[in-house]
């Protein structure tokens, strides 16, 4: 009887493990292959060689690009090199990327930038919020951008017990923001178990100097976050649930769920066209290729454009898709007056004229 029970328990455990493995592969879109979608007027951006994980463009056409992310489980082309912030002026005929100088006193050696967001105050002061992972921890760094000498002045570092595994951020004011925690745990092994078991413990946090609170929860992995042009709705990408959530923002900063738009891809960072309200997304068609470093099976890139996301029938268009021969692991796509920037987790960046 004891042996029979042991065999039954082993069988049940094996069945559960197999079911979890299948679900995990489905969340990674492990079997998906894509057909290419090319754009005619594109070039790789010189000087960006180790990632361009997030991009945020000011209304005046200045584009900030975070580079050099070291993220657990994903390759880095320069694991010992500190991260950087680049700037491109998209008003120029031939825009180029320029590394921004960061003020003295900031720990550049451990700079590991992830998601970014800009905010222009009423006095026209320009702030840059940067998710940072020094020593695999999570902080949010607040900088003031000095346009005259292309520099960032570090103002403060934000740490909080609710900001445990921050992925992306959207600024609400000069010292307040929403942030996504892509995992509940920050330890790599526990993060992997969280993904493998399909735990929905990821969340969104609101931060201000006066109040810090969870405002949305129940995500597999909350990733990119952004705001509608009228500032009434917050958009949240759940990378492992392959969808974008529309959340209504309230006066007390709480969020309520409106709807989710399901997509057949792993959605990363979200950018919003301030003129049209279109949502542009850098996506991973097959997440398995992103995590497994195989030079014969490169991680692909995909860019989606969502028009009329608040309507009953949003229009989704595949604007760009590449097998990895040009661009590997796309994570963001941002537009400014007919110009498109596509960034990646660890690879190059692409500039296109639409």
TrEMBL record:
Record's comment on post-translational modification: Glycosylated.
SUPFAM superfamilies found in the cross-reference section: Calcium-dependent phosphotriesterase
Catalysis: reaction(s): a phenyl acetate + H2O = a phenol + acetate + H(+); An aryl dialkyl phosphate + H2O = dialkyl phosphate + an aryl alcohol
Function: The absence of paraoxonase activity in turkey and chicken blood and in turkey liver indicates that PON2, if expressed, does not hydrolyze paraoxon.
Family statement: Belongs to the paraoxonase family.
Stated name of the protein: Paraoxonase
Keyword tRNA processing found: no
Cofactor binding remark: Binds 2 calcium ions per subunit.
Membrane-topology descriptor: Peripheral membrane protein
Lineage of the organism: Eukaryota, Metazoa, Chordata, Craniata, Vertebrata
Cofactor(s) recorded in Swiss-Prot or TrEMBL: Ca(2+)
Organism (species): Mycteria americana
Record InterPro entries: 6-blade_b-propeller_TolB-like, Arylesterase, Paraoxonase2, Serum_paraoxonase/arylesterase
Carbohydrate-modified residues: 269
GO cellular component, one term: membrane
Gene Ontology molecular functions: aryldialkylphosphatase activity; arylesterase activity; metal ion binding
Binding site for Ca(2+) 1: 53, 116, 167-168, 223, 268-269
Principal cellular location given in the protein's record: membrane
Keyword terms: Calcium, Disulfide bond, Glycoprotein, Hydrolase, Membrane, Metal-binding, Signal
Pfam families, alphabetized: Arylesterase
């Amino acid at each position: 009887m004891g042996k029979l029970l042991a065999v039954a328990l082993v069988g049940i455990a094996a069945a559960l493990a197999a079911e979890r493995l299948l679900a995990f592969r489905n969340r990674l879109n492990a079997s998906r292959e894509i057909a290419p979608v090319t754009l005619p007027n594109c070039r790789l951006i010189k000087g960006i060689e180790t990632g361009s994980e997030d991009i945020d463009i000011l209304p005046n056409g200045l584009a900030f690009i975070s580079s050099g992310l070291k993220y657990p489980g994903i390759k880095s082309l320069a694991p010992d090199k500190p991260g950087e912030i680049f700037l491109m002026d998209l008003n120029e005929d031939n825009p180029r990327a320029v590394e921004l100088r960061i003020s003295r006193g900031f720990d550049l050696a451990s700079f590991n930038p992830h998601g970014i967001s800009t905010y222009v105050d009423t006095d026209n002061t320009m702030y840059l919020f940067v998710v940072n992972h020094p020593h695999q921890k999570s902080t949010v760094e607040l900088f003031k951008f000095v346009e005259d000498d292309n520099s960032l002045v570090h103002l403060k570092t934000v740490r909080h017990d609710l900001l445990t595994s921050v992925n992306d951020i959207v600024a609400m004011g000069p010292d307040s923001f929403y942030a996504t925690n892509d995992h509940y745990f920050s330890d790599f092994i526990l993060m992997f178990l969280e993904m493998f078991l399909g735990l929905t413990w990821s969340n969104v946090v609101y931060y201000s100097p006066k109040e810090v609170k969870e405002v949305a929860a129940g995500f597999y992995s909350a990733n990119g976050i952004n705001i509608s042009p009228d500032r009434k709705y917050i958009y949240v990408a759940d990378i492992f649930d392959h969808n974008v959530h529309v959340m209504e923002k309230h006066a007390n900063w709480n969020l309520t769920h409106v709807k989710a738009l399901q997509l057949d891809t792993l959605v990363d960072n979200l950018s919003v066209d301030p003129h049209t309200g279109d949502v542009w997304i850098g996506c991973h068609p097959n997440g398995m290729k992103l995590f497994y470093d195989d030079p014969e099976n490169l991680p692909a890139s995909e860019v989606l454009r969502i028009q009329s996301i608040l309507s009953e029938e949003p229009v989704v268009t595949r604007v760009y898709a590449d097998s990895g021969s040009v661009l590997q692991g796309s994570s963001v796509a941002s537009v400014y007056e007919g110009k498109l920037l596509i960034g990646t987790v660890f690879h190059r960046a692409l500039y296109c004229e639409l």
